[in-house]
């Protein structure tokens, strides 16, 4: 296969992978009893740690009103709590809670995925893994850049 054909094939496979990821996360949200957007916002809160509602809106591209509704639902479910920003009491900080049932469900859902990923990656050399990590990092950056351009239209 020629280089241009290979680049096209890889790009197509990456689009297929992202579509499968969307479907996977919809299934995860279904198992958790959440809307997929609520699930991904909860993921962002867990990855970033305590975050303002404004920062969550910025990260997702959602309106602050939509984010408020998401936070309301996550708080009602016991997955997050609101606190006041110690530096600016007008701001609300959202932080994840220790929710054992949620953590158990997430572990049940993601453990097989992580085990499968480990099996796929383990046979590769350190240099191959470093290349894959760099490539994945650059694809995340490219996706963020393109998302920002679309939001700025």
What can you see in these coordinates?
It is built from six helices and three strands, in the order H-H-E-H-H-E-E-H-H. With 153 residues, the chain is mainly alpha-helical. The chain has a domain of 96 residues: Winged helix-like DNA-binding domain superfamily/Winged helix DNA-binding domain (Arc Repressor Mutant, subunit A, Orthogonal Bundle). The longest helix has 30 residues.
Number of helices: 6
Strand order of the largest sheet: 1-3-2
> Percent helix among the residues?
over 70%
CATH 4th-level superfamily of the domain at 3-98: Winged helix-like DNA-binding domain superfamily/Winged helix DNA-binding domain
Tell me, what's the shape? globular
Arithmetic mean pLDDT = 93
Q: What is the C-level CATH assignment of the domain at 3-98? A: Mainly Alpha
- Spell out the helices and strands N to C: HHEHHEEHH
Strand content: 5-15%
